[in-house]
TrEMBL record:
It holds the Pfam family Sushi. PROSITE patterns: SUSHI. This is Complement factor H isoform X1. Residues 1-22 form the signal peptide. Residues 23-85, 86-146, 147-207, 208-268, 269-333, 392-447, 499-559, 560-615, 731-791 form the Sushi domain. Disulfide bonds join C117-C144, C149-C192, C762-C789. SMART domains: CCP. Keywords: Disulfide bond, Signal, Sushi. It comes from Cottoperca gobio. The keyword Nucleotide-binding does not apply. It is found in: Virion. Its main location: virion.
């Protein structure tokens, strides 16, 4: 009845909540809210809408958009885009015109563009603007028409090139005479401007004639007023002036006009220069090519040029009264002879070849002569080096390590030979030959040296270095753990001398009341430590160390004694005293809560057989029942409908220090207990009401099922056996192959994952033959490497 009452109250509460949330939305809410702006048209909206109602809001004229409102719990929710100004797109290009946006900021409702014709064009449309309306741009694109110039009228002797009837702005009309014996009288061309008018007058044609020219600093020698075509003009120049051209001036038709050719000119008598100057020549001043008599000119030559003589690269020349220069202002190129020297055997210069400054050529000298350089170079002084070939001579060569034994003199000629023998402390003999590049031959004496010899059992105490010369001595003293000292001498065949050290050893010590813990041997090396543990009723440990004079350390053992043992809630029933010896026994009885008795024994490690007299409270297992205790142990199981969290249908708990240990909980039968063990993986137990447990695999293993699912009280792994949930990425390898006299530097495993590396280590006094000590597992197989440990050679 109580449950029924609660259900009714819950139903009434939910009904009331539903009624409160079902509120209407109003038009005023939208207009006064943040979603509204002036672009919306709300004239067709109702005053209110019920919950869940959707309504589309229209846009004002000139605006477009798709905007919906949904009434939800008394509030308007929006969807879609707000109203935006309607776009008209591009207004259209007008040929020979430009437009500008006069109203608005874009081609949208309410904007206006104005068109303007290009220069030389005029507007023929009634309006020069367009406006963006609700249906798009109003009107049509304006039209601009080119302005025309009037028709041209010309004489029949005139030849016209261009449009004379319908010329527009920018058109050009060119004129010429039809007869080659006539020339134009007027402009050769006219053009139509932006106002539709011709610039220039139409010319006529007349006979070719030349007027008498006015010649500055000169005069015409004949009395003729007008010259016909091909007639020659006779004129003279004033003193200190001369004709600009040697050719006679003739009346000639040039293009559409008649002119004197060449132009009759009288120039001052000057020295002239060619500009730009010839290659390799530079003038100062640089941009002046006419000079008066007495003027100076500096001529600078390029790197490979000369003036006046091959050594000069610059000169100053003066303009003379007759218009000539004192030094011809032209730089000449430096050139070397192509004739071969008599000691030159061959070179890369052919007959009549021009060799200029800086050019080089390889060459070879005749036998007995040596090239002064690797190549000959053309200079202002001729070929360098000079001479190109020198006779081969060699100075006597002296050595600190060798003496001359044949043909001893100060100077040697080509192919002369000298024999040497090496001095004491050095090995060898050699011969030198005087050749093209000097002495040839191997002139080395190998110095007798010895590399420093290192010993595992001795150190250098005098004259310690890496290399030793002939007759050097080195003193050694035996290292710690060895006895003796010795000296080695560096001689012709290496080191001489006795290099032995005797190792320090100790014989094993035997004690009646102590045994060696480990590493039992009859003989021990220097610094070996032997640990002893006392026995036979004695306690303690001691360590002996093998030293130079024998064993070092104090071999002491202490007789075992145990102090009286205090046990809570227990008392001694017999043989109570302050201390006990080895193997003494003491009986205890519990005071209350138990009638148990037990005996403790004084042994090597202390008291043994200690028990607890602490009592435990009655054991309780929720949803289960307990039987016992029996000897501090209870047995329990779960009631009907429940089961133990772990496997098995019953369990036990022991009373330890007053607490029951190992008590499991009882869970409902449809729930899952402890998760199963996943080989090479881990299971993360679920939390709360979650019925799945996450599986993770070890590195190198692939997870085939990532979750366990609890169903009907049992964990399921989607039909995959637990041993197949975590499988290796690749086929694993068995144990790596055995190598004689070596171990593997890792713990032993039955299987190794693919890409696992193992490293071998040779035993003492053994080394790797080929230097390879690592192999890798590749998909079930170990790399095939020939790893072999070989014994080091024994020192002499």
């Amino acid at each position: 009845m109580h449950v029924l009452t609660q259900s009714c109250v819950l139903f009434v509460w939910m009904h009331t909540l539903t009624f409160v949330k079902s509120q209407d939305c109003t038009r005023k809410q939208f207009v006064d809210g943040p979603l509204f702006d002036d672009s919306f048209d709300t004239s067709d909206l109702e005053a209110s809408y019920s919950a869940g109602k959707q309504v589309r809001v229209s846009c004002r004229v000139g605006f477009s958009g798709f905007f919906k409102l949904t009434c939800t719990e008394g509030q308007w929710l929006s969807r879609g885009t707000k109203c935006q100004l309607r776009s008209c797109g591009h207004p259209g290009e007008a040929q020979s015109a430009d437009f500008r946006l006069e109203k608005g900021e874009d081609f949208v409702f309410g904007s206006q563009v104005v068109y303007t014709c290009h220069k030389g064009y005029q507007m023929v449309s009634r309006t020069n603007f367009r406006r963006c309306m609700t249906e798009g741009w109003d009107g049509t694109v304006p039209v601009c028409e080119a302005k025309q110039c009037p028709v041209i009228h010309f004489d029949s002797k005139v030849l016209v090139n261009g449009d004379t009837d319908e010329a527009t702005y920018g058109n050009v009309v060119r004129f010429s005479c039809k007869s080659n014996s006539e020339m134009l009288d007027g402009s050769a061309e006219i053009y139509c401007d932006e106002n539709g008018e011709w610039i220039g007058k139409v010319p006529t044609c007349k006979a070719i004639t030349c007027a008498v020219p006015a010649i500055e600093n000169g005069y015409v020698t004949e009395d003729i007023q007008e010259y016909k075509e091909r007639e020659v003009l006779h004129f003279e120049c004033d003193p200190k002036y001369r004709r600009g051209e040697d050719r006679p001036s003739q009346c000639t038709k040039l293009g559409v006009q008649a002119e004197w050719s060449p132009t009759p000119v009288c120039e001052p008598i000057t020295c002239k220069l060619q500009l730009p100057p010839l290659e390799g020549t530079r003038y100062e001043p640089a941009f002046r090519n006419v000079f008066l008599p007495g003027d100076l000119l500096t001529v600078n030559c390029g790197e490979k040029y000369w003036i006046s003589n091959p050594q000069n690269i610059s000169a100053v020349t003066t303009c003379k009264d007759n218009g000539e220069w004192t030094i011809r202002p032209i730089c000449k190129e430096v050139i070397c002879s192509n004739q071969r020297d008599r000691h030159v055997y061959s070179w890369n210069v052919y007959w009549r070849q021009i060799i200029t400054l800086g050019e080089t050529t390889p060459y070879r000298c005749t036998t007995g002569y040596m090239e002064s350089a690797t190549e000959a170079t053309c200079t202002r002084d001729g070929w360098k080096p000079n001479p190109l070939c020198q006779e081969i001579k060699c100075d006597r060569r002296d050595f600190e390590t060798a003496d001359v034994v044949r043909n001893n003199k100060q100077k040697y000629r080509y192919n002369d030979q000298v024999d040497y023998v090496c001095k004491e402390g050095y090995r060898g003999r050699f011969t030198l030959t005087c050749k093209d590049r000097g002495w040839t031959g191997n002139s080395q004496c190998s110095e007798i040296t010895c590399d420093r010899r290192d010993f595992e059992t001795a150190d250098v105490v005098r004259n310690n270095k890496q290399k030793y010369r002939y007759n050097d001595q080195v003193d050694y003293v035996c290292k710690e753990g060895y006895r003796g000292r010795f000296t080695l001498n560096c001689k012709d065949r290496g080191w001489t001398g006795n290099s032995q050290c005797s190792e320090i050893k100790c014989i094993r010590q035997v004690y009646q009341n102590a045994d060696i813990d480990e590493n039992v041997r009859n003989e021990y090396r220097y610094n070996d430590q032997v640990k002893y543990t006392c026995n036979n009723g004695h306690e303690g440990h001691f360590t002996l160390t093998c030293g130079e004079t024998g064993w070092n350390g104090s071999p002491q053992c202490k007789l075992i004694q145990c102090k009286t043992l205090q046990i809570d809630n227990a008392y001694i029933t017999h043989n109570e005293k302050e201390s006990y010896g080895h193997n003494d026994r003491v009986q205890y009885a519990c005071r209350k809560g138990s009638d148990r008795r037990f005996t403790v024994t004084c042994e090597q490690s202390g008291w043994t057989g200690i028990e607890s007299c602490s009592a435990c409270q009655n054991a309780a297992v929720p949803h289960g029942f307990v039987v016992g205790p029996y000897n501090d142990t209870v047995y329990y199981t779960c009631k009907h409908g429940y089961k133990l969290f772990t496997k098995g249908w019953w369990s036990e708990a022991k009373c330890i220090d007053g607490e029951w240990s190992g008590v499991q909980i009882c869970i409902e039968n449809e729930k899952c207990g402890e998760t199963p063990v996943i080989p090479n993986g881990e299971v993360t137990p679920p939390r709360g009401q979650i019925k799945t447990a996450r599986i993770t695999c070890r590195e190198g293993y692939n997870v085939n099922v990532n979750r366990l699912t609890c169903s009907n009280g049992t964990w399921h792994s989607q039909g995959v056996p637990t041993k197949e949930i975590c499988t290796p990425f690749a086929v694993p390898c068995k144990a790596p192959p055995q190598v004689q006299n070596a171990v593997v530097l890792t713990s032993y495993q039955k299987k190794y994952l693919s890409d696992t590396e193992v490293t071998y280590k040779c035993r003492d006094k053994y080394t790797l033959l080929l230097g390879e000590n690592t192999i890798r597992c590749k998909d079930g197989k170990w790399e095939a490497k020939n790893i072999e440990c070989t014994q080091l050679p024994q020192e002499q």
